[in-house]
Write a structure and sequence with these properties.
There is one protein chain. The chain is α/β, with parallel strands linked by helices. It has two domains: 11-241, TIM Barrel (Alpha-Beta Barrel); 243-295, no CATH class. It has eleven helices and eight strands. It has helices spanning 11-19, 31-39, 51-54, 66-78, 98-110, 126-134, 150-153, 163-179, 191-200, 221-225, 242-258, and strands at residues 23-27, 44-47, 85-88, 116-120, 139-144, 183-187, 205-208, 216-219. Strands 1-2-3-4-5-6-7-8 form an eight-stranded parallel beta barrel, surrounded by seven helices. Strand 4 (116-120), helix 6 (126-134) and strand 5 (139-144) form a beta-alpha-beta unit. The longest helix has 17 residues, at 163-179. The chain is globular and about 75 Å long. The protein binds 3-methyl-2-oxobutanoic acid (KIV). The site of 3-methyl-2-oxobutanoic acid has 11 residues, from strand 6.
Length: 301
């Protein structure tokens, strides 16, 4: 069935900057996160290479491959979120040659259906960004703490402190806008610097650990929902404690099974069959509609 909603467009980024309305970006990595983020009102989804850490259990984003990204982007698109989807170009895919960069971008667009890619780095990525734009692939920039640079940076540290680092970041932001990026992530930079970049940049800035002066904010799905154990970074606000709630739910299931309280007749089939046969999975899982079960949308045919 044709999706009746307007096709997702990156125009929302420029429009929100013009209108001074904050942009809300949430990371998504699979069907359920995309459905939840879309139903929750995100303006765009970012399939970040943070999936290496929150979905695949790596200690950094460096091991994430292009195949990993394609796999997860396809799952996000199967949710038909009705939103622009941006995918990280993973480490190693835009560092070797323009040809490899474009081929990686094309895979994400053609095989995974994303609308844009995100490239970490400023001026030193000029050739990669130009090649992607030349291949009609919109690019989101990413400055400040760029996790793919973790080894060079010596860890996950706040960036843009000190005159030299500050002026490099301002210069890189001006460069990315000039180069044709449609927006720019600012990660872990002082709030005052992010506000200066935002005031100067003709493209919207999307902050994560960059204070309230950005044009929009992005959070990692697992961080904002409290899905994983451990102390989150300072810039995270947890809007739920779903990890704890889920653990409690599994513990309740385990106790019910062990105490013979689950299943009961309510979750069991009888011997008498209806003429058409009884559907085993009615009202069950799956991407039943465009837009997410939480909206109560009509099931798709
Ligand atoms: O990989 C990611 O999720 C990101 C965001 C944190 C901006 O790059």
């Amino acid at each position: 069935m044709q999706d009746p909603r307007p096709a997702p467009s990156l125009d929302v980024f420029a429009r929100r900057k013009r209108e001074g309305e904050p942009l809300v970006v949430v990371t998504a990595y699979d069907l359920s996160s995309a459905l939840i983020a879309a139903a929750g009102g995100a303006d765009a989804l970012l399939v970040g290479d943070s999936l290496g850490m929150v979905m695949l259990g790596y200690e950094s984003t460096l091991p994430v491959t292009l195949d990993d990204m394609v796999h997860h982007c396809r799952a996000v698109q199967r949710a038909r979120p009705g939103l622009p989807v941006i995918a990280d170009l993973p480490y190693g895919t835009f560092h070797v040659s323009k040809e490899e960069t474009v081929r990686a971008g094309l895979r994400l667009v053609q095989e995974a259906g994303v609308h844009a890619v995100k490239v970490e780095g400023g001026r030193q990525r000029a050739a990669a960004i130009a090649a992607l734009l030349d291949a009609e692939i919109p690019v989101m920039g990413h400055l400040g703490l760029t996790p793919q640079s973790v080894n060079r940076l010596g860890g996950y540290r706040v960036q843009g402190r000190g005159a030299e680092s500050e002026s490099r970041l301002l210069d890189d932001a001006a460069f990315l806008a000039e180069a044709g990026c449609f927006s720019l992530v600012l990660e872990c930079v002082p709030a005052a610097l992010a506000a200066r970049v935002t005031a100067a940049a003709p493209i919207p800035t999307i902050g994560i650990g960059a204070g309230p002066g950005c044009d929009g904010q992005v959070l990692v799905f697992h961080d904002l929902l409290g899905l994983l154990p451990g102390r989150p970074p300072k810039f995270v606000r947890r809007y739920a404690e779903l990890g704890r709630a889920a653990t409690d739910a599994v513990a309740a299931f385990a106790a019910d099974v062990r105490q013979h309280r689950f299943p009961t007749a309510e979750q069991s089939y009888g011997v008498a069959a209806t003429p058409a046969g009884e559907p085993a999975t009615e009202g069950s899982i799956g991407p039943a509609y465009p837009g997410g079960t939480a909206t109560g949308g009509e099931p798709a045919a």
